[in-house]
Amino acid sequence: MNLEEQIAKIVEANGAKLYDIETATEFDETIYRIYITAPEGVSLDKCAEISNELSPFLDVNPPMHGQYRLEVSSPGIERKLTKPKHFQQSVGSKVKAKVLGGDKLKGMLKSADDEGVVIETKEGEKSYKYGELGTVKTYFEF
To answer: Residue 102: which domain range?
Structure first.
């Protein structure tokens, strides 16, 4: 079992699901971010509870060499879609996408499978393979 699968098991044992993991550097500090989701939403208490469970596990099974700070949080209402499962979970959501080659588009994520997506725009439905997409995020209009 790889590290991500082990982290997912700990997250699920605490009533949430693993959404994504990323490593970032901010102000010369390495941050190991674990994003979680839950049907009832993600509270600060839920993040703290999962962080407290993951911290000793990651002390024994470090995700990287050197020092890092662990963060556990929700991916937010406007979230990056990077894996097919993210797109599949977000069908029906409004998305902003950068298509490789420079085009940008906005629309509703109509469908997603393991190969690609269909986005409904003002100009009609457009299909893309995941390899054709750059950054894709859900967005919320107030």
So the answer is: 84-138
